[in-house]
Each structure stands twice: as C-alpha cells, then as structure tokens.
Amino acid sequence: MPYTKRIPVHAGERGTGLYNCLEYVRNGDKTEDGILVNSLNCTVEFAEQEFLYIQRMYHKENDDRVAYHVIQSFDIRDDITPEQANEIGMKLCKEIYPNYQCVVSTHIDKGHLHNHIVCAPIRGRVNPLSKRQA
Predict the structure, then answer these.
(1) Of 3, 34, 75, 99, which residue is 20 to 30 A from 106 by alpha carbon distance?
(2) Which residues lie across from 70 on neighbouring strands?
(3) pTM of this structure
(4) Which DSSP letter does residue 43 get?
C-alpha cells in the first residue's frame, strides 16, 4: 500500500519555488527521460506558466502558496512496474483533484518507486489548448 504526504510549495525568492519543484519532479535522470511524466488539466512542458495563469485569472497571484507537492511512495515489496506506479498516481489525481492542474512524475532513482505530484493550489478551468486532458 502506498504512503502519501502533501507539502505546500511556496513562491520562494522571485517565484523560484514552483519552478524548482517542477524541474525536480520532471528530471529525466529519474523518470526514464520523461517517459514517466504525465499531467492532468495542463501540459507537462508549460505547467508552471499554466499554474500561474490560473492564479492570475482568479486574482491569487500574490498568494505565497503556489502549489502542493504530493509524494506517493510504494513499498519495495509492492510488485508494480514504473508505468503502473505512474498510472496509480494519475488515478489518484483524477479522483481527488479532478478540476486541478497536476503533473505526475514517477521516480525510479531510489530503491523503491515513488510518485511526485505537483498540484495547483486553486481549482481552475481546463486549458482548452492542452493536448493531455483526461
């Protein structure tokens, strides 16, 4: 059974908190060159801009909390593939955060599989230009 925790991401100096968080979770060395990175209601490549756009649209651009970082760790005894772990992360987002922008990334660099999910702090409408809508 996976263990899940949620951490707020703050703007940081000049808004670097969201950028640094997304860069970390999308790291190609940890995600089979980006194969294990998916998104819900946004695009993987432009998630930072899309998160910030929704915050501006709802006049929340001055809020310190710019995202939530969810870490979902799987037990080493769990008999799942990296692709299955990523699918579990996507299902979690679709059930818990269906109207939020999320980036789901499965890391394989440790002795166990784990997902990093970066979720926008406010619910927004889906970007009509997004190719990865669920």
Answers:
(1) 99
(2) 6, 117
(3) 0.86
(4) -
